[in-house]
Amino acid sequence: MGYRVVVDFDLCESNARCMEAAPEVFEVRDDDFLYVLDETPPDSLRDKVDEAVRRCPKAAITVVEE
Amino acid sequence: MTGAGGTDRTIVVVGASLAGLRAAEEIRHQGFEGTVTVIGDEAHRPYDRPPLSKQVLAGAWTTERIELTVAADGGLDALGLDWRLDTSATGLDLAAREVVLRDGQRLAYDGLVLATGARPRELPGTGTLAGVHTLRTLDDSLAVRAALDAGAERVVVVGAGFIGAEVAATCRGLGRDVTILEALPVPLGRVLGDEMGAVLGDLHRDHGVDLRLDTGVAGFEGADRVERVRLADGATLDADLVVVGIGVTPNTGWLEGSGLALDDGVVCDATTLAAPGVVAAGDVARWPSRRFGALLRVEHWDNAIGMGEHAARRLLAEPPFAGSNGSTGVGPYDPVPWFWSDQYDRKIQLAGWPSGADEVVVVDGSTEERRFVALYRKGDRLVAVLAMNRPRLLVTFRGLVERGATWDEALAQASPA
Fold it and tell me: Could you tell me the fold of the domain covering B10-119+249-316?
Protein backbone atom coordinates (compact mmCIF):
# COMPACT_ATOMS: atom_id res chain seq x y z
CA MET A 1 0.00 0.00 0.00
CA GLY A 2 1.50 3.28 -1.07
CA TYR A 3 0.38 6.86 -1.23
CA ARG A 4 -0.03 9.54 -3.85
CA VAL A 5 0.87 13.22 -3.57
CA VAL A 6 -1.80 15.52 -4.96
CA VAL A 7 -1.27 19.27 -5.39
CA ASP A 8 -4.18 21.63 -5.99
CA PHE A 9 -2.52 23.97 -8.47
CA ASP A 10 -5.39 26.44 -8.20
CA LEU A 11 -4.30 26.99 -4.60
CA CYS A 12 -0.53 26.65 -4.97
CA GLU A 13 1.34 29.95 -4.85
CA SER A 14 4.88 28.59 -5.04
CA ASN A 15 5.80 29.43 -1.48
CA ALA A 16 8.21 26.52 -1.81
CA ARG A 17 8.05 25.38 1.80
CA CYS A 18 7.31 21.93 0.37
CA MET A 19 10.55 22.02 -1.60
CA GLU A 20 12.50 22.68 1.57
CA ALA A 21 10.74 19.88 3.44
CA ALA A 22 10.93 17.29 0.65
CA PRO A 23 13.19 18.37 -2.23
CA GLU A 24 13.05 14.83 -3.63
CA VAL A 25 9.35 15.33 -4.34
CA PHE A 26 8.73 19.04 -4.88
CA GLU A 27 10.60 21.57 -6.98
CA VAL A 28 9.84 25.23 -7.64
CA ARG A 29 11.69 26.10 -10.83
CA ASP A 30 12.98 29.33 -12.28
CA ASP A 31 9.60 29.97 -13.88
CA ASP A 32 8.22 30.29 -10.29
CA PHE A 33 5.92 27.29 -10.75
CA LEU A 34 5.86 24.14 -8.65
CA TYR A 35 6.61 20.78 -10.21
CA VAL A 36 5.91 17.46 -8.50
CA LEU A 37 8.91 15.28 -9.25
CA ASP A 38 7.46 12.07 -7.85
CA GLU A 39 3.72 11.62 -7.35
CA THR A 40 4.18 8.25 -5.64
CA PRO A 41 7.23 8.67 -3.42
CA PRO A 42 8.66 5.78 -1.41
CA ASP A 43 7.55 5.26 2.19
CA SER A 44 10.99 6.41 3.34
CA LEU A 45 10.00 9.96 2.30
CA ARG A 46 6.60 9.92 4.02
CA ASP A 47 7.68 11.98 7.05
CA LYS A 48 9.15 14.62 4.75
CA VAL A 49 6.01 14.69 2.62
CA ASP A 50 3.82 15.04 5.73
CA GLU A 51 6.02 17.96 6.80
CA ALA A 52 5.49 19.52 3.37
CA VAL A 53 1.72 19.14 3.83
CA ARG A 54 1.89 20.90 7.21
CA ARG A 55 4.16 23.69 5.96
CA CYS A 56 2.12 24.63 2.90
CA PRO A 57 0.54 28.00 3.70
CA LYS A 58 -2.23 27.32 1.22
CA ALA A 59 -3.00 23.75 2.32
CA ALA A 60 -2.60 22.89 -1.35
CA ILE A 61 -0.97 19.48 -0.83
CA THR A 62 -2.84 16.34 0.13
CA VAL A 63 -1.73 12.76 0.51
CA VAL A 64 -4.06 10.07 -0.78
CA GLU A 65 -3.56 6.55 0.56
CA GLU A 66 -3.79 3.89 -2.07
CA MET B 1 5.74 2.85 36.53
CA THR B 2 5.33 4.81 33.35
CA GLY B 3 4.44 2.97 30.17
CA ALA B 4 6.35 3.42 26.95
CA GLY B 5 4.15 6.31 25.89
CA GLY B 6 3.53 7.61 29.42
CA THR B 7 -0.17 6.69 29.47
CA ASP B 8 -0.63 7.92 33.04
CA ARG B 9 0.89 11.31 32.25
CA THR B 10 -0.83 14.54 31.26
CA ILE B 11 0.34 17.31 28.97
CA VAL B 12 -1.64 20.54 28.95
CA VAL B 13 -1.46 22.80 25.91
CA VAL B 14 -2.72 26.30 26.62
CA GLY B 15 -3.76 27.85 23.32
CA ALA B 16 -5.78 26.15 20.58
CA SER B 17 -4.49 27.91 17.51
CA LEU B 18 -1.74 26.93 15.10
CA ALA B 19 1.21 26.65 17.55
CA GLY B 20 -0.82 24.75 20.14
CA LEU B 21 -2.28 22.40 17.56
CA ARG B 22 1.05 21.62 15.91
CA ALA B 23 2.60 21.04 19.34
CA ALA B 24 -0.20 18.61 20.24
CA GLU B 25 0.18 16.88 16.89
CA GLU B 26 3.94 16.48 17.37
CA ILE B 27 3.45 15.20 20.94
CA ARG B 28 1.34 12.38 19.48
CA HIS B 29 3.70 11.88 16.56
CA GLN B 30 6.51 11.30 19.07
CA GLY B 31 4.48 8.48 20.60
CA PHE B 32 3.12 10.06 23.76
CA GLU B 33 -0.01 8.13 24.69
CA GLY B 34 -1.12 9.95 27.82
CA THR B 35 -3.72 12.69 28.11
CA VAL B 36 -3.23 15.80 25.99
CA THR B 37 -5.58 18.59 27.07
CA VAL B 38 -5.91 21.61 24.78
CA ILE B 39 -7.35 24.83 26.22
CA GLY B 40 -8.73 27.46 23.87
CA ASP B 41 -10.45 30.73 24.71
CA GLU B 42 -12.39 30.81 21.45
CA ALA B 43 -15.36 28.50 20.91
CA HIS B 44 -13.92 27.30 17.59
CA ARG B 45 -11.63 24.39 16.94
CA PRO B 46 -8.26 25.47 15.51
CA TYR B 47 -8.54 27.40 12.28
CA ASP B 48 -6.16 29.09 9.90
CA ARG B 49 -5.79 32.83 10.46
CA PRO B 50 -4.10 34.15 7.27
CA PRO B 51 -7.31 33.95 5.19
CA LEU B 52 -9.16 36.10 7.76
CA SER B 53 -7.82 39.30 6.19
CA LYS B 54 -8.14 37.95 2.65
CA GLN B 55 -10.44 35.19 1.37
CA VAL B 56 -12.76 35.06 4.40
CA LEU B 57 -12.98 38.83 4.56
CA ALA B 58 -13.70 38.98 0.83
CA GLY B 59 -16.49 36.43 1.26
CA ALA B 60 -14.75 34.07 -1.16
CA TRP B 61 -14.18 31.31 1.38
CA THR B 62 -16.56 29.80 3.92
CA THR B 63 -15.45 29.36 7.50
CA GLU B 64 -15.41 25.56 7.05
CA ARG B 65 -12.64 25.98 4.53
CA ILE B 66 -10.18 27.33 7.08
CA GLU B 67 -10.54 24.58 9.68
CA LEU B 68 -7.08 23.24 10.48
CA THR B 69 -6.49 19.58 10.02
CA VAL B 70 -3.60 17.19 10.46
CA ALA B 71 -1.82 15.00 7.95
CA ALA B 72 -2.36 11.82 9.96
CA ASP B 73 -4.99 9.29 8.95
CA GLY B 74 -8.30 10.15 10.54
CA GLY B 75 -7.50 13.86 10.78
CA LEU B 76 -7.79 15.89 13.94
CA ASP B 77 -10.00 13.43 15.82
CA ALA B 78 -7.41 10.68 15.44
CA LEU B 79 -5.09 12.61 17.75
CA GLY B 80 -7.40 11.87 20.69
CA LEU B 81 -7.08 15.29 22.26
CA ASP B 82 -9.05 16.46 25.28
CA TRP B 83 -10.52 19.75 24.04
CA ARG B 84 -11.45 22.49 26.51
CA LEU B 85 -12.73 25.26 24.27
CA ASP B 86 -14.48 28.52 25.10
CA THR B 87 -12.56 28.72 28.36
CA SER B 88 -9.26 30.28 29.30
CA ALA B 89 -6.38 29.78 31.64
CA THR B 90 -6.20 32.49 34.29
CA GLY B 91 -3.26 31.35 36.37
CA LEU B 92 -0.28 29.03 36.62
CA ASP B 93 1.14 27.36 39.73
CA LEU B 94 4.61 26.19 38.71
CA ALA B 95 5.40 24.53 42.04
CA ALA B 96 2.20 22.48 42.10
CA ARG B 97 2.29 21.99 38.30
CA GLU B 98 -1.28 23.18 37.90
CA VAL B 99 -3.06 25.46 35.43
CA VAL B 100 -6.01 27.42 36.80
CA LEU B 101 -9.01 27.85 34.50
CA ARG B 102 -11.49 30.73 34.35
CA ASP B 103 -14.09 28.75 36.35
CA GLY B 104 -11.58 28.03 39.11
CA GLN B 105 -10.87 24.47 38.06
CA ARG B 106 -7.25 23.39 38.49
CA LEU B 107 -5.67 21.12 35.88
CA ALA B 108 -2.62 19.16 36.96
CA TYR B 109 0.07 18.64 34.34
CA ASP B 110 3.32 16.77 33.93
CA GLY B 111 4.23 18.90 30.94
CA LEU B 112 2.93 22.28 29.80
CA VAL B 113 2.95 24.05 26.43
CA LEU B 114 2.33 27.79 26.48
CA ALA B 115 0.84 28.89 23.17
CA THR B 116 -1.58 31.66 24.11
CA GLY B 117 -0.68 33.88 21.16
CA ALA B 118 -1.26 37.58 21.09
CA ARG B 119 -4.11 40.04 20.89
CA PRO B 120 -4.51 43.23 18.86
CA ARG B 121 -3.37 46.47 20.39
CA GLU B 122 -6.06 49.10 20.68
CA LEU B 123 -5.68 52.81 20.20
CA PRO B 124 -5.45 54.36 23.63
CA GLY B 125 -8.22 56.71 24.72
CA THR B 126 -10.53 56.11 21.77
CA GLY B 127 -13.21 54.17 23.64
CA THR B 128 -15.49 51.68 21.96
CA LEU B 129 -17.82 52.54 19.14
CA ALA B 130 -19.70 50.27 16.75
CA GLY B 131 -17.99 50.06 13.41
CA VAL B 132 -14.50 50.22 14.86
CA HIS B 133 -12.83 46.82 14.66
CA THR B 134 -9.61 44.97 15.17
CA LEU B 135 -8.88 41.79 13.20
CA ARG B 136 -7.40 38.74 14.85
CA THR B 137 -10.06 36.08 15.24
CA LEU B 138 -12.62 34.44 12.98
CA ASP B 139 -15.37 36.34 14.79
CA ASP B 140 -13.48 39.61 14.15
CA SER B 141 -13.24 38.81 10.46
CA LEU B 142 -16.92 37.93 10.19
CA ALA B 143 -17.84 41.17 11.97
CA VAL B 144 -15.84 43.26 9.49
CA ARG B 145 -17.31 41.20 6.68
CA ALA B 146 -20.82 41.92 7.99
CA ALA B 147 -20.09 45.65 8.01
CA LEU B 148 -18.94 45.43 4.39
CA ASP B 149 -22.05 43.46 3.48
CA ALA B 150 -24.15 46.11 5.19
CA GLY B 151 -22.80 48.59 2.67
CA ALA B 152 -19.80 50.27 4.29
CA GLU B 153 -18.31 52.29 1.44
CA ARG B 154 -15.70 54.40 3.18
CA VAL B 155 -13.18 52.19 4.93
CA VAL B 156 -10.45 53.65 7.10
CA VAL B 157 -7.56 51.39 8.06
CA VAL B 158 -5.45 52.57 10.97
CA GLY B 159 -1.91 51.23 10.68
CA ALA B 160 -0.03 50.29 7.51
CA GLY B 161 1.40 47.03 8.85
CA PHE B 162 0.71 43.72 7.16
CA ILE B 163 -2.78 43.17 8.60
CA GLY B 164 -3.84 46.70 7.70
CA ALA B 165 -2.29 46.36 4.26
CA GLU B 166 -4.14 43.12 3.54
CA VAL B 167 -7.44 44.53 4.80
CA ALA B 168 -6.92 47.57 2.58
CA ALA B 169 -6.15 45.39 -0.44
CA THR B 170 -9.19 43.19 0.17
CA CYS B 171 -11.50 46.18 0.57
CA ARG B 172 -10.17 47.77 -2.62
CA GLY B 173 -10.84 44.45 -4.34
CA LEU B 174 -14.45 44.83 -3.22
CA GLY B 175 -14.54 48.30 -4.75
CA ARG B 176 -14.66 50.25 -1.49
CA ASP B 177 -12.95 53.58 -0.87
CA VAL B 178 -9.96 52.96 1.37
CA THR B 179 -7.82 55.33 3.39
CA ILE B 180 -4.83 54.08 5.37
CA LEU B 181 -3.67 56.23 8.27
CA GLU B 182 -0.11 55.55 9.40
CA ALA B 183 1.46 57.37 12.33
CA LEU B 184 5.00 56.83 11.07
CA PRO B 185 6.59 58.53 8.05
CA VAL B 186 7.12 55.21 6.24
CA PRO B 187 4.94 52.07 6.31
CA LEU B 188 6.78 49.14 7.90
CA GLY B 189 9.93 51.25 8.07
CA ARG B 190 10.98 49.64 11.34
CA VAL B 191 10.66 46.17 9.84
CA LEU B 192 11.82 46.61 6.25
CA GLY B 193 13.72 49.88 6.34
CA ASP B 194 12.57 53.14 4.74
CA GLU B 195 13.35 52.28 1.14
CA MET B 196 11.42 49.00 0.97
CA GLY B 197 8.71 50.28 3.29
CA ALA B 198 8.07 53.11 0.83
CA VAL B 199 7.73 50.58 -2.00
CA LEU B 200 5.04 48.72 -0.09
CA GLY B 201 3.28 52.01 0.55
CA ASP B 202 3.38 52.87 -3.14
CA LEU B 203 1.77 49.52 -3.93
CA HIS B 204 -1.39 50.78 -2.19
CA ARG B 205 -1.32 54.06 -4.06
CA ASP B 206 -1.06 52.08 -7.34
CA HIS B 207 -4.42 50.60 -6.40
CA GLY B 208 -6.18 53.81 -5.47
CA VAL B 209 -5.72 53.80 -1.72
CA ASP B 210 -5.41 57.18 -0.01
CA LEU B 211 -2.30 56.46 2.05
CA ARG B 212 -1.64 59.17 4.63
CA LEU B 213 1.67 58.98 6.45
CA ASP B 214 2.75 60.84 9.58
CA THR B 215 -0.92 60.89 10.48
CA GLY B 216 -2.01 60.20 14.02
CA VAL B 217 -5.54 59.30 15.12
CA ALA B 218 -7.09 61.23 18.02
CA GLY B 219 -10.42 59.45 18.20
CA PHE B 220 -13.60 58.21 16.57
CA GLU B 221 -16.88 60.12 16.39
CA GLY B 222 -20.43 59.09 15.70
CA ALA B 223 -23.86 58.80 17.29
CA ASP B 224 -24.59 55.05 17.32
CA ARG B 225 -21.69 53.94 15.21
CA VAL B 226 -18.55 55.43 13.76
CA GLU B 227 -19.14 58.29 11.31
CA ARG B 228 -15.81 60.11 11.41
CA VAL B 229 -12.20 59.63 12.37
CA ARG B 230 -10.69 62.59 14.19
CA LEU B 231 -7.04 63.05 13.26
CA ALA B 232 -4.31 64.29 15.56
CA ASP B 233 -4.14 67.61 13.71
CA GLY B 234 -7.85 68.23 14.36
CA ALA B 235 -9.10 67.39 10.87
CA THR B 236 -11.80 64.76 10.44
CA LEU B 237 -12.33 62.03 7.89
CA ASP B 238 -15.72 60.45 7.10
CA ALA B 239 -15.82 56.70 7.71
CA ASP B 240 -18.40 53.90 7.63
CA LEU B 241 -15.98 51.27 8.88
CA VAL B 242 -12.67 51.43 10.71
CA VAL B 243 -10.18 48.59 11.08
CA VAL B 244 -7.35 49.18 13.53
CA GLY B 245 -4.19 47.19 12.81
CA ILE B 246 -1.44 48.62 14.98
CA GLY B 247 0.25 45.46 16.14
CA VAL B 248 -0.32 42.89 18.83
CA THR B 249 0.52 42.26 22.47
CA PRO B 250 1.48 38.77 23.65
CA ASN B 251 -1.08 37.15 25.93
CA THR B 252 0.94 36.82 29.12
CA GLY B 253 -1.38 38.54 31.61
CA TRP B 254 -2.48 35.21 33.08
CA LEU B 255 1.17 34.36 33.83
CA GLU B 256 1.91 37.48 35.90
CA GLY B 257 3.33 36.43 39.26
CA SER B 258 3.83 32.82 38.15
CA GLY B 259 7.60 33.13 38.36
CA LEU B 260 8.12 32.80 34.59
CA ALA B 261 10.27 35.47 32.96
CA LEU B 262 7.91 37.82 31.09
CA ASP B 263 9.25 40.57 28.85
CA ASP B 264 7.26 41.21 25.69
CA GLY B 265 6.33 37.52 25.79
CA VAL B 266 7.35 34.44 27.71
CA VAL B 267 11.14 34.43 27.68
CA CYS B 268 12.46 30.93 27.01
CA ASP B 269 15.91 29.50 26.68
CA ALA B 270 17.33 28.74 23.24
CA THR B 271 15.55 25.39 23.21
CA THR B 272 12.04 26.88 23.93
CA LEU B 273 12.11 25.77 27.58
CA ALA B 274 10.58 28.41 29.89
CA ALA B 275 10.80 26.47 33.18
CA PRO B 276 11.22 22.80 34.14
CA GLY B 277 8.44 20.97 32.32
CA VAL B 278 7.22 24.13 30.59
CA VAL B 279 7.82 25.13 26.96
CA ALA B 280 6.47 28.03 24.92
CA ALA B 281 5.76 28.44 21.21
CA GLY B 282 4.29 30.83 18.68
CA ASP B 283 3.43 34.51 19.01
CA VAL B 284 3.71 34.47 22.82
CA ALA B 285 7.24 33.06 22.96
CA ARG B 286 10.51 34.97 22.95
CA TRP B 287 13.82 33.18 22.68
CA PRO B 288 17.50 33.93 22.11
CA SER B 289 18.48 33.31 18.51
CA ARG B 290 22.15 32.57 18.09
CA ARG B 291 21.80 33.08 14.36
CA PHE B 292 20.62 36.68 14.70
CA GLY B 293 22.20 37.48 18.07
CA ALA B 294 18.95 38.77 19.54
CA LEU B 295 15.89 37.79 21.50
CA LEU B 296 13.25 37.09 18.88
CA ARG B 297 9.50 37.01 19.16
CA VAL B 298 8.10 36.07 15.79
CA GLU B 299 4.43 36.49 14.92
CA HIS B 300 4.49 34.48 11.71
CA TRP B 301 2.33 31.55 10.67
CA ASP B 302 5.38 29.47 9.77
CA ASN B 303 7.00 30.07 13.15
CA ALA B 304 3.89 28.87 14.96
CA ILE B 305 4.30 25.52 13.20
CA GLY B 306 8.05 25.13 13.53
CA MET B 307 8.22 26.35 17.10
CA GLY B 308 5.16 24.35 18.15
CA GLU B 309 6.78 21.18 16.84
CA HIS B 310 10.17 21.98 18.34
CA ALA B 311 8.66 22.84 21.73
CA ALA B 312 6.79 19.53 21.76
CA ARG B 313 9.99 17.58 21.19
CA ARG B 314 11.80 19.66 23.80
CA LEU B 315 9.09 19.01 26.35
CA LEU B 316 9.29 15.27 25.79
CA ALA B 317 13.03 15.43 26.48
CA GLU B 318 12.19 16.74 29.97
CA PRO B 319 11.47 14.65 33.06
CA PRO B 320 9.22 12.74 33.56
CA PHE B 321 8.98 12.02 29.83
CA ALA B 322 12.64 11.69 28.91
CA GLY B 323 13.69 8.14 28.27
CA SER B 324 10.13 6.91 27.93
CA ASN B 325 9.99 7.73 24.23
CA GLY B 326 13.55 8.28 23.11
CA SER B 327 13.19 12.06 22.82
CA THR B 328 16.43 13.29 24.24
CA GLY B 329 19.00 15.84 23.30
CA VAL B 330 16.73 18.39 21.65
CA GLY B 331 18.90 21.32 20.63
CA PRO B 332 18.29 25.02 20.10
CA TYR B 333 15.44 26.39 18.04
CA ASP B 334 17.11 28.72 15.58
CA PRO B 335 15.15 29.02 12.32
CA VAL B 336 15.23 31.66 9.63
CA PRO B 337 11.89 33.43 10.16
CA TRP B 338 9.76 33.53 7.04
CA PHE B 339 6.41 34.97 6.12
CA TRP B 340 4.34 35.98 3.17
CA SER B 341 1.68 38.59 2.60
CA ASP B 342 -0.74 38.68 -0.32
CA GLN B 343 -1.78 42.16 -1.37
CA TYR B 344 -3.63 42.89 -4.61
CA ASP B 345 -1.92 40.70 -7.21
CA ARG B 346 1.43 40.73 -5.41
CA LYS B 347 3.02 38.13 -3.17
CA ILE B 348 5.42 39.65 -0.68
CA GLN B 349 7.80 37.31 1.14
CA LEU B 350 10.41 38.04 3.74
CA ALA B 351 12.96 35.55 5.05
CA GLY B 352 15.42 36.42 7.79
CA TRP B 353 15.66 39.23 10.30
CA PRO B 354 16.28 42.62 8.64
CA SER B 355 16.11 44.59 11.89
CA GLY B 356 19.17 46.82 12.20
CA ALA B 357 20.44 46.01 8.71
CA ASP B 358 23.18 48.28 7.33
CA GLU B 359 22.21 48.13 3.68
CA VAL B 360 19.54 46.85 1.31
CA VAL B 361 20.23 46.13 -2.36
CA VAL B 362 17.82 45.13 -5.12
CA VAL B 363 19.51 42.27 -6.97
CA ASP B 364 16.76 41.14 -9.32
CA GLY B 365 13.92 42.92 -11.11
CA SER B 366 13.02 46.41 -9.97
CA THR B 367 10.83 48.02 -7.38
CA GLU B 368 9.13 50.06 -10.15
CA GLU B 369 7.80 46.94 -11.84
CA ARG B 370 6.78 45.60 -8.41
CA ARG B 371 8.67 42.39 -9.08
CA PHE B 372 12.01 42.18 -7.37
CA VAL B 373 14.36 40.59 -4.87
CA ALA B 374 16.13 42.73 -2.26
CA LEU B 375 18.92 41.55 0.02
CA TYR B 376 19.71 42.94 3.48
CA ARG B 377 23.28 43.20 4.77
CA LYS B 378 24.32 43.50 8.40
CA GLY B 379 28.08 43.65 8.89
CA ASP B 380 29.52 41.19 6.39
CA ARG B 381 26.49 38.89 6.47
CA LEU B 382 23.32 38.38 4.47
CA VAL B 383 20.59 38.62 7.15
CA ALA B 384 17.36 38.80 5.15
CA VAL B 385 15.78 38.66 1.73
CA LEU B 386 12.60 40.42 0.62
CA ALA B 387 10.84 39.35 -2.55
CA MET B 388 7.83 40.60 -4.44
CA ASN B 389 6.41 38.08 -6.91
CA ARG B 390 9.72 36.17 -7.05
CA PRO B 391 9.13 33.00 -4.99
CA ARG B 392 11.84 30.87 -6.61
CA LEU B 393 14.63 33.36 -5.93
CA LEU B 394 13.33 33.89 -2.41
CA VAL B 395 14.00 30.21 -1.79
CA THR B 396 17.54 30.48 -3.13
CA PHE B 397 18.46 33.38 -0.88
CA ARG B 398 16.57 31.99 2.11
CA GLY B 399 18.94 29.04 1.81
CA LEU B 400 21.91 31.40 1.94
CA VAL B 401 20.56 33.11 5.07
CA GLU B 402 20.00 29.65 6.53
CA ARG B 403 23.63 28.68 6.20
CA GLY B 404 24.96 32.04 7.36
CA ALA B 405 26.33 33.15 3.99
CA THR B 406 28.52 36.22 3.75
CA TRP B 407 27.37 39.29 1.85
CA ASP B 408 29.95 38.66 -0.87
CA GLU B 409 28.65 35.12 -1.36
CA ALA B 410 25.13 36.46 -1.63
CA LEU B 411 26.08 39.05 -4.22
CA ALA B 412 28.01 36.46 -6.20
CA GLN B 413 24.88 34.28 -6.21
CA ALA B 414 22.84 37.24 -7.40
CA SER B 415 25.03 38.00 -10.40
CA PRO B 416 27.04 34.91 -11.31
CA ALA B 417 30.29 35.62 -13.11
Answer: FAD/NAD(P)-binding domain (3.50.50)
